[in-house]
Amino acid sequence: MDPLSWLYARQGRFAPGLERIRALLARLGHPEEAYPVALVGGTNGKGTTARTLAAILEEAGFRVGLYTSPHLVDFRERIQVQGRPIPEEKLLALLAELRPHAERLEASFFEAATALALLHFAREGVEFAVLEVGLGGRLDATNATEPVLSVVTNVGHDHLEVLGPTLKDVAREKAGIFRGGVPALTAAQGEGLGVLRAEALARKTPLWVLGEDFHAEGVEALPEGLAFTLRLERTGEALRLTARLLGPHQAENLALAALSGRLLGAGWEAVKRGVARAENPGRLQRLLWRGRELLLDGAHNPEGALALREALRFHGLLPAAFVLGFSRDKDHAAMAEALRGLGPVVLTRYASLRSEDPRALLPLFPGAKVVEDPLEALEEAFSREGRVVVAGSLYLVGEVLRRLEGLPAEERWQ
Q1: What angle do CA 281, 286, 292 make, to 5 degrees?
Q2: Is the dihedral of CA 7, 55, 219, 136 positive or negative?
């Protein structure tokens, strides 16, 4: 079995805890100690925040490693140095080196992938690493590092079966990436923020809260993105920022990244340049397909679906037809409520047993049509509207991107 196939075969393994990843990193010589780390967790927006923070630190002159998940088209997307995915030959060599240790410790897919990223960053001499938390925080493999800054973007209704059952439980798990004396930032609200605030106080973690300590004001739609003003309450400083990302909700994620970069030593000009060039594929990504507008969004929980709805209206991207496919373990009814009535719907699925049978979703979308093949579903949707939105799962978005590039579907769980 080739190294990457071996890694994918471990997708079914999941057992929360930091014992295995810590033991694995010890066997590899503790690569995570070779550079400072920022951890970015949260229910939604953590990918955007992590990518933008990495871009800001690069603009500030740092050599930066970025670890994100899941990937869309190619596993190598997850592990980047200076914005470039890990070369295939280095990926395969590092996997071969890591494999015997991971097998002895029965490490999971995500634990092995995280160790791989941390080892690659050490070998490449990065000066800073930005790590996107995979699930929760307290017991996530990325939390085996000791961050110099932590971000919890928000707290929403996702993975309740693992992190819950309540929103307070989810918030408590996400606060597990806080450290005593180490700055943390959040855009959380309501009871989620209440728990984060209490956990920060108990840990003596200085917490910056969006809407209190800093603000994202005057959010404006631009032809190819958005603009907003970042204002710091404590100093009175204000900076107008522009970005290529779509959706007013992204102003929160960008503000978190911008202040994070500033706290880590980036100057305002580096912050401005990093925000301006930041990208996050699969999050309201705009493409032209056969001369028609295609938008791809990985909204996969109720909060993400509501943000998608608001973004489409904010940027004037309706009417549109929708190609939707959900994972089995999501709140289908709440997501349907957020997306219902925006346009005609075609239900489909991605190539995994984790994907929900689209026929089971029909009661939630009266009048929808089921087309099991995603590309055929696209054709059906374009026969109804000149603009199509693909949403419901990052795995579905990834499969559509692969198929558009002529690549076969990839069986995905993580």
Answers
A1: 145
A2: positive
Alpha-carbon distance 156 to 69, whole Å? 18
Q: Who contacts 36 (Cβ-Cβ below 8 Å, separation ≥6)? A: 127, 128, 129, 147, 148
**Other C-beta atoms lying within 10 Å of the C-beta of residue 33:** 13
Instruction: Tell me the one-letter amino acid at 206.
Output: P
Residues contacting 102, CB < 8 A, separation 6+: 10, 24, 111, 112, 115
Reduced to 3 states (helix: H, G, I; strand: E, B; else coil), residue 405 is coil
Q: How far apart are CA 39 and CA 62, in angstroms?
A: 17
pLDDT at position 414 over 80: no
pLDDT of residue 212: 98
Q: Is the peptide bond before 70 cis (omega within 30 degrees of 0)?
A: yes
pLDDT higher than 60, residue 164? no
Strand partners for 149: 38
Q: What share of the chain is helix, strand, coil (3-state, %, to 5)?
A: 40, 20, 40
Query: Phi and psi for 164 in degrees, rounded to 5?
Result: -85, -150
- The CATH class, in words, for 285-405 is alpha beta
Cα gap 336→320, rounded to integer Å: 16
Q: In the CATH hierarchy, which fold is given to the domain comprising 3-277?
A: UDP-N-acetylmuramoyl-L-alanine:D-glutamate ligase (3.40.1190)
What mean pLDDT value characterizes the chain?
A: 95
Domain limits, the chain: 3-277, 285-405
Q: Sort residue 202 into left (φ over 0), alpha (ψ -120 to 50) or beta.
A: alpha
Encode burial over 187-196: b for 16+ CB neighbours within 10 A, e otherwise: bbeeebbebb
From residue 65, give the alpha-carbon distance in Å to each of 57, 68, 82, 199: 10, 10, 7, 29
Residues 258 and 287: their CA atoms lie apart, in Å, by 27
Instruction: Tell me which DSSP letter residue 81 carries.
Output: E
Q: Residue 232: phi, psi to the nearest 5?
A: -100, 120
291: buried, middle or exposed (CB in 10 Å: 19+, 13-18, 0-12)?
Answer: exposed
Q: Which amino acid does the sequence have at 67?
A: Y
Top-confidence residue, 329 or 296: 296
| Per-residue pLDDT tens over the stretch 31-40 | 999 999 999 9
Which percentage of the chain shows pLDDT scores above 70? 98
